Please model this.
Amino acid sequence: MVKTLFDIALILIFTKIGGLLSRKLKMPEVLGALLAGVLLGPIAFNIVHYDNNIKLLSNLGVIMLMFLAGLETNLEQLKKAGKSSFAIGSFGIFVPLVFGTLSAFLFYENTLENIFIGVILTATSVSITVETLTELGKLNTRAGINILGAAVIDDILGLILISVLLTANSGSGSASLMLTIIKIVVFCLFGVLAIVFLPKFINRLTQKIEPSRTLLTFALAAALLVALLAESLGIAAITGAYLCGLLFSQFHHKEYIERNVKAISSGFLAPIFFVSVGLEASLEGFSVRVIAITAIMFIIAVIGKVIGCGAAARLFKMSRSEAAQIGVGMISRGEVAIITANIGLQNGIITQEVFIPTILVVLLTTILTPILLRLAFSHKRAHTPS
Model:
């Protein structure tokens, strides 16, 4: 217990210092947290070890991250973008998935592992993009709204893909896989119905109730229970947590819940998750082959989103500059790719040889996205919707 408490204290201190340094360099805090994990783990000083206690807190951190992502989703903006966002999100998944899977066959023969590598490359994290667009005053442009909407679609489709692959990895046969797909469809259908109808009913009941810690406790319990329900149905727990976040994003007291969940997540659980990624990483087996895998994954991570999302934007009569802005805005992988890779590693679908390149791709796209976004928005004045 003493060692665990000391490890957690070190993790929180190192991630906070790393986050502050990242902010100084105008980079997102997640970058500093990842580097903190690398420093504390076997790659550098090897002070903190990945054990069951860290694993438990890390898994809770992932659930809270996805619950918070759902809470922060603006469904009204998603409705505004509508069909174009759905197309951009779908193309933004399809192109990297196909290119990523096919390129993985250059290194591996296992089809499931190769598809999972493609799934890792479909991820999008718009937190970095949102920060940059806010700085530039371009968040409410047509490109900005479509990026936000497409990212939501991207997340939902990506979570469904992860759930399907986890079932396929269990080796329980095609009948079980079909059953899981049916479960996913039913689960998502009930989730959508809950998101549409439940908030209206609950808001009537809670309209005159002041937000309190009791409300927060029930919200956290709901996130864990929906995550548990998803897991018990053979669907990834993070899918349930995300849908629960979308549900609570419609409540009157959403801001109170979001603010407090963010404090718990960002202040305690999320740093442990990001550091655990560095703790799991190892330079054992690092070679020219790993560098080659990283290079190919990075190229596909960039061109997959630029081509896929950009092409979809052009189908909806957006200008070339808007298509480029949307494609570039979807490049960053951030915590979503890390969560996906971590699930793959823990379930034995991918190995360290893929895990290390994933972390490097996340770091590179995190650094590259703000630079390319500034360039993309400097050429032509973006269209702002009326």
Observations:
- The chain has a mean pLDDT of 86.
- The chain has one domain: 2-378.
